[in-house]
Amino acid sequence: MAIPVQFLCRWLRIVGLVFIYYVFSIGITFYNKWLMKGFHYPLFMTLVHLAINFCLSALTRRAMQCWTGKSRTILNWTDYIYKVVPTAIATALDIGLSNWSFLFITISLYTMTKSSAVLFILFFSLLFKLEEPNPFLIVVVLLISLGLFMFTFESTQFNLQGFILVLLASFLGGIRWTLTQVLMQKAELGLQNPIDTMYHLQPAMILGLFPLFLYNEELSLSTSETLFRETELSPFLYSVFTLSIGGLLAFGLGFSEFLLVSRTSSLTLSISGIFKEVCTLLLAAALMGDKMSGINWLGFVVCLCGISLHVALKTIYSKNKGPTIRHLSSRSPEFELPLLHGDDSEADEYNDKDKEQKNILH
Q: Is the Cβ–Cβ distance between 22 and 279 less than 8 Å?
C-alpha cells in the first residue's frame, strides 16, 4: 500500500527538525570544548554568547512584530525583578559553570554528568508541586544515579574539579528549568513564546554572571595577549569571529528546540534528546579520543534507561490526566508556543500529539 503523501511530508519534517536540533546541540558542545583548548576564559565566552543571544532575540522579536502587527510583551520592573531575575541567575550560573568545566573534563564525562540534571529537575518539580509523587520516580532516580556512578567508576579521564563544576551546573539546571517552567506558565506575564523569554532573561543573566567573571577571569584576561592586548588586527578579528560562532550556535539551539516542540511535541524533543546523548558520546570517542571502559558504557546505558523511564512515565501520566497545555496551530505566523489555560471545548480541537504533553520543559 502506498504511503500517504501527507504522512511522508510530516515524517520528513520531523526528521529535518530533529536534524537541525542535533546540529546546534551537538555542535555547541564540541565547539565549547574546542574553544577551551586555546581560549581559557569560559565565563567571558559565556558573557559574549549571552550578549549575542540578546541582540538576536531582540531582532527576532522586532521581525515577529512587523510580521504579525502585534506588539511584543514588555514586563514591568516589579515582575522582572521578582520573577525573571531568579530564573536568569540560575540559568547564567548553569551555563557558565558548564562551560567552565570544559577546561578540565572530556565531552563524554560532561555529557554523562549533565544527564543527571533530570534528578534535580525531578526534585525541584516535586518541591514546587509541579510534579506529583510517583513510586516509579524512585526507580528513575536509582537508575540515573547508578549509571552516573558506573560511568565515573575508575574512569581513566576523570577530573574531580571538572566533575564538581558540571554536577553543580546540573543542580542549578534543576532550579533553572523548574523556575523557567513556572515563569512560562504564568499566562499573565505573556512569556509563553521562548523568544520573549530569552529576550527578558539575557540582561539579568549577564549581570548575574558578571561578578563571577570579575572575580575569576577579569585580571588574567586583561593582562593576557588574548583579545585586549593583541598587537595585530588579524588575531583580534579571529578571536571575535570564533567567539561569535558560539553565540549563533546558542541562539540556534534555543530556536531549534522551540521549532521542534511547536511543530511536533515535547515528547519528540525528549526522545530526540536521549538519542542525542548517544550520538554525542560516539562522536566524542571517534573525534576527540575520549576513552571509556565497558563498565563506563554500561553505566551510560543504565542512565539512559532511567531517563527513558522518566519520559515514558510523563507520557502515560499526561495521557491519563489529559492536556494541561495546548498548542496553537502550527500555521500560526509567529509559531507561538502552548498557552496554559483554555476551555475544554477549545482543547478538543487539537490532535492527539498535543494531548501527550504535560509541559514543554520536561
A: yes
